[in-house]
Amino acid sequence: MLGESGIGGPAGHQPRQGDFARVGLFVRSLVGLDREAAKAALGGFVAGKSLGANQIEFVDLIVNHLTERGVMEAGLLYESPFTDLTPRGPEGLFSSAHLSQLMGVLDQVRRAAMARMIWGPLTDRGEIRARDD
Prior knowledge:
There is one protein chain. By secondary structure, the protein is mainly alpha-helical. It has one domain (8-127). The chain is built from 6 helices and 2 strands. It has helices at 2-5, 17-31, 35-46, 53-69, 82-85, 96-113; strands spanning 119-122, 128-130. A two-stranded antiparallel sheet has the order 1-2. A hairpin with a 5-residue loop joins strand 1 (119-122) and strand 2 (128-130). Helix 3 packs antiparallel against helix 6 (96-113). It is globular and about 35 Å long. The two termini are 24 Å apart. The relative contact order is 0.18. Residues 1-8 and 115-129 have low confidence and may be disordered.
């Protein structure tokens, strides 16, 4: 259908998995992430730790960002408002092991936003047909 109209590209165009990943990230950036889902994503990071006030506030800033933007690049942890709490960024608040765990959480949230659909070739009418494998 889209292929025939010219919107979907030339006939026989097969969307790549990366195309869907970008769409997933784009949609997530528009709608953000549910606050409870953002808290749940960071729940494993916080669990079992005795966090200080600045550490809790730092995590809350991450939750706020995820709620508004849906995903977060690790580099943002080294910018304001995060550096308003500690000029050294997360290294000023967390051990390297905890920091690695935090980066893993951000990566997991990002991967979850990416569409994981793999499509087969277009049908004769230009419609996308799902793969059988």
